[in-house]
TrEMBL record:
Cofactor dependency: Zn(2+)
Enzyme Commission number(s) of this protein: 3.5.4.3
Catalytic activity from the UniProt record: guanine + H2O + H(+) = xanthine + NH4(+)
Classification via NCBIfam families: guan_deamin, PRK09228.1
GO molecular function: guanine deaminase activity; zinc ion binding
Naturally occurring in which organism (per UniProt): Halomonas eurihalina
Record protein name field: Guanine deaminase
Gene3D superfamilies referenced in this protein's UniProt entry, alphabetically: Metal-dependent hydrolases (3.20.20.140), Urease, subunit C, domain 1 (2.30.40.10)
Cofactor note: Binds 1 zinc ion per subunit.
Residues of the Amidohydrolase-related domain: 75-433
Superkingdom, natural source: Bacteria
One GO-annotated biological process of the protein: guanine catabolic process
InterPro entries: Amidohydro-rel, Guanine_deaminase, Metal-dep_hydrolase_composite, Metal_Hydrolase, Metallo-dep_hydrolases
Function: Catalyzes the hydrolytic deamination of guanine, producing xanthine and ammonia.
Amino acid sequence: MTTRRPAMRVLRGPLLSFDADPGDGDSPASGSVRYLEDGALWLDEGRIRAIADYTELAPRLPAGIEVVDYSGKLMMPGFIDTHVHYVQLDIMASYGRQLLDWLNEYTFPEECRFAERAHAESVAEAFLDESLRVGTTTAQVFCTSHPGSVDAFFHAARRRGLRMLAGKVLMDRHAPDGLLDDTLGGLADSERLIADWHGRDRLGYTLTPRFAPTSTHEQLDATGAVLRNAPDLHLQTHLSENLGEIDWVAELFPECEDYLGVYERFGLVGPRSTFAHGIHLTQPMRRRLADAGANIAFCPTSNLFLGSGLFDRQACQEAGLATSLASDVGGGTDLSGLGTLKAAYQVGQLLDQPLTAWQGFYRLTLGNARALHLDEHIGRLREGGEADIVVLDPEATPLLARRTARCRTLAERLFALMMLGDDRAVHATWANGACVHQRDITSQAAAVAS
């Protein structure tokens, strides 16, 4: 089952997109930002056929084409989340344990429930609805070790026409029996899922060893072999999130130089590898990651919630290491990219590393797309690009409206959205050229249902 064919239409209103990294200065680098006060996006067959000032584009439009008026709003590329666990949606805000206790007390029991396909389907639907409600149109997603959890997620994503990356968790030790793979059977399941889903419509597969302690040497070695034979696959795992985790890795892999050395030994560090957290890294480790072309997913709400530490974005920048922004739900406390930006700014303030709104919104869009090697498809508003769009409302709440009224510049309006915005600030979300979330309609439907 696939989504209906997107209709041709025009979206009219203010629009913002990034063509390059704006840098960390108060003013964006020259040529990095595209902003049109009265812009137009001509959508056709799921792509952006043209982008221009409305007055310039209007004479070229077919007679009678639908024009959706977003005056007073702000159109941007759909937000991208580089690290999230859809299967942990229902354990968000579970009382604060640190990482290893939190895994044993909340995560593993919850993930055991995904042995039931019906449960996986229900949560996948809810997760994607919530993601679209906060403007996220693409994510790199952890499923569970149950193949059915991956099938359920990809079915739901494909039906909505979404570009998504996801994978089956690989772990063959140090977890409940209901979550453990057979050492090589987990790879066989992954190969079946790759054959079924990788490259199908807008979907891609990510090899997903949970983290080094829950995979044996044999499983990590087999995962590396799959990656070497299929370099177009992605890989996602965790790295140096928690000090207790790091000590445990040292006990389990005494032959390796450090935590990163485990993944290097088995060929898991490459240009399509995303390592979540990376809080407790040395500068030589950051340089090794940079040399391999990997990226670190900065997960600020999760790092704060679990007390894992403060991520040093500047040290990564100095090492040439790419970073991306992620929610890490369920350790993260907000699926919203705006919530992630707010927490990232606060972490930066504690480290004297201010995050501008320019850099923040770049990271949520083109920056994250580049980190995931998806920027040929998504991440900016351009002719020929896929039509994934979030429409933000700078007057979504009384408080945000008051602050916006006092803003004199676009930078101030963006920063107000970054700090005061939440799901209510997402007026609409478009994916593959179709409107997949409309705030007022969704709110009315919920009111009727209640």
